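>> received
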Amino acid sequence: MGQYITTPLAPDNITGDVEPLEDRVLVEPDTLPECTPSGLLVLARPLERDCIQVRTGVVMAVGPGRTTDHGSVVPMHVAVGDRVIYGKFLGMPFRWRGVEVIMCQEPELLAVVRA
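>> returned
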């Protein structure tokens, strides 16, 4: 994914339970393939991987929803286990239980992939 800030306030590997607040979503990004389905080798150079503008991942946790100015809660449109499509510059990356994840707000997601 990228580099992470390592300070007492932002540990490199969070091991406890993570419960997103408001309309935040925890996404585990899919790994980029090393070769295409037809068998062509994809080079691991950063320049080529940066050309991919959208990415996919699996929702690992969701918050309860955004609270309006009137106090009502807007329900989330995504659920744990949903596969989502998002832009490559999404949210805040960090490590959770040894896995690279991204915390973002639900409106930043582009789509849910339905089978």
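>> Strands lie at 24-29, 54-62, 66-67, 73-74, 83-87, 92-96, 99-105, 109-113.
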